[in-house]
Amino acid sequence: MAENNQRAGNPAQWSSRFAFIMAAVGSAVGLGNIWKFPYITGENGGGAFVLVYLACIAVIGLPIMVAEVMLGRRGGKSPIGTMAMVAGNEGRSRGWAGVGIMATLTAFIILSFYSVIAGWTMPYILAAVGGDFSNIAAEESGALFGGLLASPGQLLLWHTVFMGLTVLVSAGGVRHGLERAVTKLMPALFVLLLILVGYAMTTGYFGEAIGFLFRPDFSALTAEAVLVALGHAFFTLSLASGAMMAYGAYLQKDVSIARTSVVVAIMDTGVALLAGLAIFPIVFAHGLEPGEGPGLIFVTLPVAFGQMPGGSFFATLFFVLLLFAAWTSSISMLESLVSYLNEKGVSRVKAAVGGGLVAWLVGITTVLSLNDWSGFTPLAMFERFEGKTLFDLYDFLTANIMMPLGALMTALFVGWKMKPANSAVELGRWHGLWFPVVRYLSPIAVLIVFYFNLK
Ligand code: PHE
Ligand code: NA
């Protein structure tokens, strides 16, 4: 039984390159693309932010993804175990395991609040099924969302359900079922986004949205916006969190890591851009505020669904797919910790339940940040953190500090501490292109962004 669980939840290898791509895309595509990307783009003024984000994906995110998958495959262990082992084999200090420890912690903090946000999809599924969105006005939609946030009980309930779902898959054998589900659900999500973009074109504000997303106004770009774009490149690709390293450990030797990573990055970026193209026309058509924050899609999309033919059906489908996308991401967040504890002799079931329980407890502070504790801004004495609730701080700390730091350390390790001959074995003919980028370009870019934010 225990052995079965082990094999089912922790496959020694993916069954194919396709299975790895699906798992990696499942991890990457999530709330980051559909919920976070549009709202931070709205908050940071559009075009210039989007361009910086795309540059960060190409120049920093993608090379780091290649590095993480490569390290994962070489180590073949949990992110913590992999870093210790690869560093040891390279004749370096096993203290590099610290990179794995920080990644595991990062994923864990993210999971705590990600579960709360993912929970929002469930009352939205119920509302969609009940036809609550039909002909809803923007104001009503805002009130509906406000009502959800104002109710700690509701938020806690859905947070609990979502964390339960995550633990369930992480603990046991459903992984393969889920992998199969991902292969159907991800394309469905893609198609549904296309339908939404099609609808958005009929609003008469599509051109305005294109301008907002793709016409850069660099005069409005702040150092913090660049940091947010950089952080989001890591967040959206599931980097510096152990997720890709853990999944890389299950990758066969004959798969091209570089080509596979490019596919994952393109799919992830495609979904984010489609989400933006679907949402901003609606925002402008209804006079909504692009910088309205984390509620952006939950306020705008119901208005669109409420007006389109078959809207209740599409709305239900959309929020179900969003829930699945978030689910396949949250499972990968728990994987760093579970695989580590598993290595230390703790069963996957115990590790997943224990980890999920603690993340759930921490998540309660995010639930309360949205209502009863919304005035609790513990770092308000620093100008930068003024008005930031605990939830805001978890988000900032992970995406904008821990992830860039972790990625920087990873780049320094593969670029300066690992023998190039060894990474070349893993990367083949792509090595010549990749190596100078992770050795110089990626770390220097991260350092520059940090520098301008500390000044
Ligand atoms: N990439 C996921 C998303 O965009 C979030 C994530 C972060 C998943 C870190 C795993 C690890 O939603
Ligand atoms: Na993503």
UniProtKB/TrEMBL annotation:
The keyword Ligase does not apply. Its main location: membrane. Pfam families: SNF. Keywords: Membrane, Symport, Transmembrane, Transmembrane helix, Transport. PROSITE patterns: NA_NEUROTRAN_SYMP_1, NA_NEUROTRAN_SYMP_3. The chain crosses the membrane at residues 18-35, 47-67, 95-117, 155-174, 186-206, 226-250, 262-284, 304-328, 349-373, 393-416, 437-454. It is found in: Membrane. It comes from the Bacteria. It is a multi-pass membrane protein. Belongs to the sodium:neurotransmitter symporter (SNF) (TC 2.A.22) family. This is Transporter.
